[in-house]
Amino acid sequence: MKKRAMTIGALVIAGALSSCGSDGDSAAASEADRAADDYEITQMVTKWHDAVTTKDVDLAMSLFADDAVLTAAGKPHSGKDEIRKFFMTQAAPFKPENRWTSLTHTPDIRHTISGERGSLYFECHYFDTGTRQLVNSVSGDTRIVQVDGHWLFTSLVADNAILS
Predict the structure, then answer these.
(1) Which DSSP symbol is given to 91?
(2) Contact 48, 63 (CB under 8 A)
(3) What angle do CA 69, 60, 141 make, to 5 degrees?
(4) Which pLDDT value is given to residue 26?
């Protein structure tokens, strides 16, 4: 009987220790998932700047959900087809005559995450590569969603950035 009680006690302790370890593992995994999400969301900003600097509309479009809405100059463009058309015909950074590079100041990137949804704010400071002059500053206030493990814009409101 004493041996049986010791065996049961050992099993209870082992179970308690393994569940403590799994909670720790779960917390570590959750922390790692959060860090991966943080990284991917900040990479969205990098990809955006790459897309507008190189005039790569396909790269820009890869950042948008199928049903996304882009609002520029107060006018909404709904869905990928309308957003692509806007980039190809109206968006100044994508115009062939504009030789601009896009930069951001790291503290101007802020995001929140709540499950598979979040928000992202960033600024684009466009410099003419020939004159090296600042030609435009735009803020992007976005809503984002995680789809198949990737973060995408569902709403992007572009407006003039307020420079301090």
Answers:
(1) -
(2) yes
(3) 45
(4) 67
> Which helix (DSSP H) or strand (DSSP E) does residue 25 occupy?
helix 2-54
Confidence (pLDDT) at 5 = 44
Cβ contacts of 5 within 8 Å, gap of 6 or more: none
CATH 3.40.50.970 is held by the domain 39-160: no
Tally the residues of the chain.
164
Domain boundaries, the chain: 39-160
The pLDDT score that the predictor gives to residue 129 is 95
Regions of the chain with pLDDT less than 50: 3-21
Nearest to 52 by CA among 84, 100, 89: 100
Burial level of 19, CB count in 10 A (0-12/13-18/19+)? exposed
Tokens, residue 16? 């308690």
SS3 state of residue 97: coil
H or E, element range at 112: strand 110-114
What mean pLDDT is reported for the chain? 85
Task: Give the H/E segment covering residue 121.
Answer: strand 117-128
Query: How high is the pLDDT of residue 22?
Result: 52
